Amino acid sequence: MLHMFAILAITIGIFYFMIIRPQQKKQKETDAMLQAISKGDRVLTTGGVFGTVVGKKTEDVIVLKVADDVKMEFSKQSIVRVLERGE
Q: CB atoms < 10 A from the CB of 44, how many?
């Protein structure tokens, strides 16, 4: 019986260190990246749209310039990566 509990505890430990902990670390990095987005940054969205941040409409909505005279609003959560830092 004790052997069975030991195996279960080892399995839970492996699960935590291989899956849960790395996911939490990645989520913290993503949150920090989203908080650091500022005007002039070149970003990539989940839909594959490249754009330059021209402003924030609200705390959760940013405005991207995707082409000359074309500005689009995106949820901040839809930003996948910051390609270049602006000003």
A: 15
pTM of structure: 0.74
16: CB partners within 8 A, 6+ apart? none
Q: Which of 57, 22, 56 is nearest to 37 (CA)?
A: 56
What's the rounded Cα separation, in Å, for the pair 40 and 55? 8
pLDDT at 59 over 80: yes
Pairing of strands 61-67, 70-75: antiparallel
The dihedrals phi and psi of 15, each to the nearest 5 degrees, come to -60, -45
Q: Residue 64 is inside which H or E element, if any?
A: strand 61-67
Rounded Cα–Cα distance for residues 30 and 81 (Å): 9
